[in-house]
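[step 3/7] inverse_fold.run input=structure_tokens len=408
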């Protein structure tokens, strides 16, 4: 008898950004004369940097010749890219990560959704609340999260670690000990970032309790403050307790091109000594045929001197938007967080408005799309996220509109 996976059937609603996309499409259809500005999903708007475009063209040309044509890519990634990653993202920061601990993939979203497959169904996961929804959803799909309570919007086996104004958006250690701890810093959605000493405390905690940290560093390029670590491996002992996920989407604009990677150090073992590196390699070998050569060449271009300069330009372009949003909304009386080490601004909704109510208000009265904080978890209620990934013009216009309709 054919039976659908019951775990999937238990997922409430659709994926957050699909829900928003549907609402916005319906609004646009009903109001075709309105110019709706999207600062909702964290999708980039600047074109790919010239050195990346050049690398893409030349890799395409290689595909046209019998001598240089490439078929299947190595499933863990081409050596030229893994070497560039190890040198530039880790060794240059004093992190002891070697190229064969790096797994190139088609993006950080798939890696952050798939990585839970190497853990037993019995493992308890802990997430920051609010949280990037992929971490929880992918564990629901794996049957690891217990029952859903629609009242509290919580899963019974998930350990939620509130990140609020009160704790400076840094999670406290939970009462129950988790097996797998998800940490995203700089954080999506709050736009705040952990200081090195805070992250070191988490690394020490994970080592003491034999837990693993899945560290999502997709927004690393946006760090502007000295005491914020770019990689978890800057913390001592992290190679034995942490997996790190990185993206080319937010720094180099690969949201449509797709490329990312995950680091699984060889020193990382489960309680019985099984090496997680081998399990993730086994998973890649079976389920993945490697990121395309063309994309990997484009990824390597990101690490060239021109590529690095161009990426700094992209990051500062978006961070100008972050500053426009922060200043504009603070002047209008909003309480704003983030936007200093991350391309997200997290604002308190005015007058205790519910975040979906504020979403409707923004869409209908300002024609601006943002993301309701409640979509990221119970502690996101009463907050709203705006991204800095728009154009300068749209960002300035959106801020102006929000100020005009401000209900304060
Ligand atoms: C977001 O808006 O949270 C991100 O763009 C989603 C993603 O990167 O998958």
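[step 3/7] decode complete -> sequence:
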């Amino acid at each position: 008898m054919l039976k659908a996976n019951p775990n999937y059937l238990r997922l409430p609603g659709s994926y957050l950004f699909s829900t928003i996309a549907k609402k916005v499409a319906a609004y646009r259809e009903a109001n075709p004369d309105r110019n709706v500005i999207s600062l909702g999903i964290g999708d980039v708007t600047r074109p790919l940097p010239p050195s990346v475009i050049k690398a893409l063209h030349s890799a395409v040309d290689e595909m046209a010749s019998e001598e240089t044509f490439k078929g299947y890519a190595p499933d863990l990634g081409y050596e030229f890219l893994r070497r560039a990653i190890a040198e530039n993202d880790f060794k240059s920061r004093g992190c002891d990560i070697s190229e064969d601990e790096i797994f190139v993939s088609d993006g950080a979203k798939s890696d952050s959704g798939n990585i839970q497959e190497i853990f037993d169904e019995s493992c308890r996961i802990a997430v920051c609340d609010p949280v990037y929804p992929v971490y929880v959803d992918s564990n629901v799909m794996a049957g690891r999260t217990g029952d859903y309570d629609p009242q509290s919007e919580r899963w019974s086996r998930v350990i939620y670690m509130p990140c609020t104004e009160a704790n400076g958006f840094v999670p406290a250690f939970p009462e129950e000990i988790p097996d797998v701890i998800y940490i995203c810093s700089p954080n999506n959605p709050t736009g705040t970032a952990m200081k090195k000493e805070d992250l070191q405390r988490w690394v020490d905690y994970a080592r003491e309790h034999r837990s693993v940290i899945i560290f999502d560093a997709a927004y690393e390029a946006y760090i502007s403050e000295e005491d914020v670590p770019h990689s978890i491996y800057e913390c001592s002992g992290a190679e034995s307790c942490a997996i790190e996920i990185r993206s080319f989407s937010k720094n180099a604009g690969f949201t449509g091109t797709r490329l990312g990677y995950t680091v699984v150090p060889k020193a990382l073992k489960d309680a019985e000594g099984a090496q997680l590196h081998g399990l993730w390699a086994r998973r890649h070998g079976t389920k993945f045929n490697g990121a395309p050569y063309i994309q990997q060449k484009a990824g390597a271009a990101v690490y060239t001197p021109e590529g690095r300069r161009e990426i700094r330009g992209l990051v500062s372009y978006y961070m100008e938007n972050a500053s426009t949003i922060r200043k504009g909304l603070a002047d209008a009386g909003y309480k704003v967080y983030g936007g200093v080490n991350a391309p997200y601004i997290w604002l308190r909704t005015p007058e205790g408005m519910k975040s979906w109510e504020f979403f409707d208000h923004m869409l209908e009265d300002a024609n601006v799309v943002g993301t309701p904080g409640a979509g990221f978890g119970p502690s996101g209620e009463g907050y709203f996220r705006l991204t800095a990934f728009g154009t300068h013009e749209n960002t300035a216009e959106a801020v102006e509109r929000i100020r005009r309709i401000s209900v304060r």
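[step 4/7] annotate
The first strand starts at residue 37 and ends at 38.
The mean pLDDT is 97.
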